[in-house]
Write a structure and sequence with these properties.
Elements: E1 9-12, H1 16-28, E2 32-38, H2 45-49, E3 52-57, H3 68-78, E4 82-84, H4 94-102, E5 106-107, H5 112-119, H6 121-130, H7 150-157, E6 161-165, E7 174-177, H8 183-198, E8 203-207, E9 212-222, E10 227-239, E11 242-248, H9 255-271, E12 275-285, E13 291-297, H10 304-311, H11 315-323, E14 340-347, E15 349-350, E16 356-357, E17 360-361, E18 364-366, E19 374-378, E20 385-386, E21 393-401, H12 404-417, E22 419-421, H13 427-435, H14 437-441, H15 448-458
Parallel strand pairs: 1-2, 1-4, 2-3, 4-5
Antiparallel strand pairs: 6-7, 6-8, 9-10, 9-12, 10-11, 11-14, 12-13, 14-21, 15-16, 17-20, 18-22, 19-21
Helix pairs in contact: 4-5, 12-13, 13-15
Amino acid sequence: MSEPGTIRRVLVANRGEIARRVFRSCKSLGLETVAVYSEVDRGAAHVLDADRSVLIGPAPARDSYLRIDKVLAAARETGADAIHPGYGFLSENAAFAKAVADAGLVWIGPQPEVILAMGDKQRARDLASAAGVPVVPGSGRFAEGETVGLLEAAARVGYPLLVKSSAGGGGIGMRRVDHEADLAKTVAATQSMAGKSFGDGSVFLERFVPKARHIEIQVFGFGDGTAIHLFERDCSLQRRFQKVIEESPAPGLPNAVRTAMAEAALRLACAVRYAGAGTVEFIVDAETFAFFFLEMNTRIQVEHPVTEMVTGRDLVAMQIRLAGGVQEPIAQSDIACRGHAIECRLYAENPAKMFMPSPGKLERFAPPAASNHLRIDSGYRQGDSVTPFYDPMLAKVVTWDENRAQACERAAAALRAFDVDGLQCNRNFLIACLMDDAFARGDLHTGFIDARKAALIAA
């Protein structure tokens, strides 16, 4: 058991599989755990896993999981001395991070000012550029309703391009424009959506790379201007800018490019004196391997298990130990990448109906047995209900083996053995992706699913 430092009891300001996953690391460190839950999550698996739990409001996230005051009240009520935000919800909310610190609690995450800087996509681009990290050609900021200079900026960026919200992330607030005639209405629509979703309607333009790979570098900073990387993850299999299958290491990536990307990510992490686990995301031209900074996520990622599988490192435990003041700096030479890992996101959704969410009761939910080769992260058990209030991800199916082909075979076998009934899920779609000849060759790009959607759904 590792020494957790000043921390004794951790509240996880989240739900589902990520709350359960953080609890596992807490228990490995000998820490007590606190769950918060909404009315619809009463009796949920993450609530039963925790040592203590507190009801914080009705089902809608805005009335429960997004209420900073209620989360802090729960921490006071249970005597928690630290808060881990997981991913999503308040995880990249700088005001929440500051409120936790102001309340005298330990924030298990990066500094609020770094969260704020990286949450502003334009400021993040400027910081990356200043650190010598290549950025995608783009424009300045256009506030909501502003269009002066828009056509000229688009001409400099070039078509096709993306209209992106300055706030937000995870593919939300992003629209492609192929022709000048569509620019004004797309910018207006994106500004409106961004204003309603993020409270910031500003957008910017960014060049669209037609055949691109989405590759990210896992970094861990020690808050003193030093950092390490834990190699890369390929997240190119996406639909509507949302990740579907992730893997590490990235197949077919030249070692020189792999090294250059990692070094670029470390320059940025060190420049902002990053503390804890973070991810520097890059868009990579699939043909030339030129790479450009996309964004930095100041939290643990959904896909972090593939990194843990190939490095043998517990990223969440490292986060907790750093926040508790006992995580010693680790030498880059101490981090090794062994074998290959793949993560498939199993969703309650219907691929045949435009991947619409499929809420309902899990009449049957029987994952295959976990092993050294297979990890299942889930927030559900048989008999639970998937509600329309939250993301419908049922589980993350993560496999490891000595090479990519064997890891793929294990992933497909694990999905076939995963017994789900009572609602629609994307299991067969995931298997079809894994079995696709181009996927097997490592011919990956962000348009992979769109180009093959009909065949993958029919398989």
